[in-house]
Design a protein that fits this description.
The chain is mainly alpha-helical and 234 residues long. Helices cover 77% and strands 0% of the residues. Helix 4 runs antiparallel to helix 5, helix 5 packs antiparallel against helix 6 and helix 6 packs antiparallel against helix 7.
């Protein structure tokens, strides 16, 4: 019996190594990791908050309201769904582990742009113009620009315009991180759910930013800075 247990444990080692490897976490899987964490983190916060009121709604009822309760919720849920499909397209583009499939990558960019518009509309309805401008308009512009950019004919690599749009997507994460950080600082005593939700947003943005960085070409300014940091250069 102990020998069988050791064999079972050993069989999971290759799988664990694969999951922990950088190659496994292509941009699509990173995006969808953030999507899953973001959606269920928000759902968990909605359910936890609902327990303190006297509505008498079940957890399933509160989850339904969170996802489809009003126009804003519906738009944000739609955005999450489209973002998730876009993540699958990115994963398909990187499935060979080498040079990405340009067409599937463009599909991922285009879907992400559509999702960003839905997200922007959702947060605008909630009264968050900064997030609507950054996570919505700015993000959509970056994704659509990346989707329709043409590769350099001489190198077959993304041109400078394409790189700019990809960097624009990365920069669109900053306002959301700042807004969530402010939410943590301003949270009153006892609002643990709000603090956890803000940290959840920050975590998701960091994961999404990691995916954005994976999409950048090696000669991008941000990619060079990160490479220098990793290499220990000043």
């Amino acid at each position: 019996m102990p020998l069988m247990s050791i064999k079972k444990i050993a069989s999971f080692v290759p799988l664990s190594c694969t999951i922990l490897s950088r190659q496994y976490w292509d941009p699509g899987r990173l995006y969808n990791l953030g999507n899953v964490v973001g959606f269920f983190g928000g759902a968990g916060a909605a359910i936890a908050t609902g327990r303190s009121d006297a509505s008498g709604l079940s957890a399933l009822g509160r989850l339904e309201i969170y996802a489809f309760g009003n126009t804003s919720a519906l738009m944000l849920s739609l955005a999450t769904l489209i973002f998730f499909v876009a993540g699958l397209a990115y994963t398909r583009a990187w499935r060979d582990g080498t040079a990405p499939d340009r067409t599937m990558s463009q599909v991922g960019d285009g879907l992400s742009g559509i999702a960003a518009i839905a997200f922007g509309a959702g947060v605008a309805i909630l009264g968050s113009p900064v997030l609507a401008a950054s996570g919505g308009a700015m993000h959509a512009l970056g994704k659509f620009g990346s989707a329709f950019s043409i590769e350099s004919k001489s190198t077959g690599m993304p041109n400078r315009r394409s790189t700019f749009f990809k960097e624009l997507v990365l920069l669109s994460r900053i306002p959301a991180i700042c807004a969530a950080a402010v939410g943590v600082v301003r949270a009153e005593h006892g609002t643990a759910v709000q603090i956890i939700l803000s940290f959840n947003v920050i975590l998701c943005c960091i994961v999404w930013a990691a995916a954005d960085i994976r999409l950048l070409p090696a000669d991008a300014t941000v990619a060079k800075v990160i490479s220098n940091i990793v290499a220990g250069k000043r």
